[in-house]
Specification:
By secondary structure, the chain is an alpha/beta fold. The chain is built from twelve helices and 22 strands. It is globular, with a radius of gyration of 21 Å. The two termini are about 25 Å apart.
């Protein structure tokens, strides 16, 4: 097997969500290019339209958002359907908290199991009324209005919670300060600054100071590093070849997986690095490598939280033992990603052990065969798709179509780069 080719991965999911919401809160028209067309981002688009935001798709495929500020938003006629998207729910909760009407949030079965108190509590502290189930989950109702400033310390490093608080401050025109136990991805801060907002970060605290309305800006969404990670892994694990991934976001809060892969011995380079709209962009190049197991420390986890199931699959083919600690947050993602990843590795014959806040994987070169239960989790489906594409492995993914949440064209691109047909899932 020899991998080769160039893959332009979809636009970054985190940036796509924020580009839509911030454009709606700005004054004027914003044009967004290379917006990710996925189920999660469509949930955010639908929520904004339900609140009265006008959008238009141009003949070239760009999206124009006609922003008129938070005061123009109207009460939705029905609950906002957030689908599978925790980002839609939590970020839009921040916006809803500043609106003088009631907004109900609903989601699919997976999203309805995810914790929402972490975002409800700071919004309540700002003056919004938030109702959740007894378990602290969806459905959620927010009765917003006039908010007051807050200084909030989050229990976990969460860009979604931080973003919700910042958006509530922007929409309500009040000062907010957010402190986290560890740095989370900082797209909200960068994008707000690019729109003229006064946002500072120092000493582990992010502060928004109200001022002039957000100005509309045009942006091109860079490639998603979490999507690119799958093909970096494929190239490193393949017997031969190289893959190039142009225009990928290499924001330092998103490159933890690349850093760990390099520590494992992977050949990964970032060429032509440049700044575009406040975000670092580069062409990633990865090639066949001899990998060794490593220990991933808790402080490394926030910058690679979405890639940890993929890392577990990579570790199954590395020389030696890989351990991950400090990743308990994986248990409240689209699935319990610790339990689901370890169970799937064992199902195909790999040596893996579950721990309360992480996992241990012992690598080997023996063939891996079996059927993987993904629990509808797109990250698991793609991670085991990569493992299944390697010579000698025969892995069936139970729900291949769930990748539409973040990367609808994943199986097509995988087949092109791997040079042949890929077994997607059960018949």
């Amino acid at each position: 097997m020899r991998v080769s080719g160039i893959a332009r991965v979809p636009g970054d999911k985190s940036i796509s969500h924020r580009a839509l919401i911030l454009a709606a809160l700005a004054e004027g028209e914003s044009r967004i290019s290379r917006l990710l067309d996925s189920a999660d981002v469509r949930s955010t688009m639908g929520a904004l339209r339900a609140l009265g935001v006008e959008t238009e798709t141009t003949p070239s495929g760009d999206l124009v958002v006609r922003g008129r500020g938070a005061a123009s938003l109207r009460e939705p006629r029905a609950a906002l359907d957030c689908g599978n998207s925790g980002t839609t729910t939590r970020l839009m909760a921040g916006v809803a908290a500043a609106c003088a009407f009631r907004t109900r949030f609903e989601g699919d079965a997976s999203l309805s199991r995810r914790p929402m108190r972490r975002v409800a509590e700071p919004l309540q502290a700002m003056g919004a009324r938030v109702a959740l189930t007894a378990a602290g989950t969806l459905p959620m109702e927010i009765e917003g209005g006039s908010l007051h400033e807050t200084s909030w310390t989050t229990g976990v490093a969460s860009a979604q919670v931080k973003g919700a608080i910042l958006l509530a401050g922007v929409a309500a025109g009040v000062r907010v300060a957010v402190r986290e136990p560890a740095p989370s991805r900082d797209h909200s801060e960068r994008m707000l600054r690019a729109m003229g907002a006064d946002v500072s970060a120092r000493g582990g605290e992010v502060v928004y100071e109200p001022g002039a309305p957000l100005r509309a800006v045009d942006r091109t969404v860079p490639g998603d590093p979490s999507s690119a990670a799958f093909f970096v892994a494929l190239a490193a694990l393949a017997p031969a070849g190289e893959i190039a991934l142009p225009d990928v976001c290499v924001n330092p809060t998103r490159t933890g997986f690349l850093d760990v892969m390099r520590r494992m011995g992977a050949s990964v380079a970032a060429d032509d690095e440049r700044d575009d709209g406040g975000e670092a962009i580069a062409t990633l190049r990865a090639g066949a490598s001899a990998l060794r197991g490593v220990d991933v420390r808790p402080e490394e986890v926030p910058a690679m939280i979405d890639e940890l199931p993929l890392l577990a699959c990579v570790a199954a083919r590395a020389d030696g033992t890989t351990t991950v600690a400090g990743a308990a947050e994986l248990r409240v993602k689209e699935s319990d990603r610790i339990a689901a990843t370890v169970a799937a590795l064992r199902a195909v014959g790999a040596d893996a052990e579950e721990r309360p806040d992480g996992f241990v994987v012992v690598g080997s070169d023996r063939p891996l065969h079996g059927r993987v239960v993904t629990h509808g989790d797109h990250r698991l489906a793609m991670a085991f798709g990569i493992l299944g594409a390697l010579p000698g492995n025969q892995i069936v993914v139970d729900d291949p179509d769930c990748v539409a949440v973040s990367y609808p064209g994943f199986w097509r691109d995988l087949a092109l780069l791997a040079g042949g047909a890929i077994a997607r899932g059960a018949a």
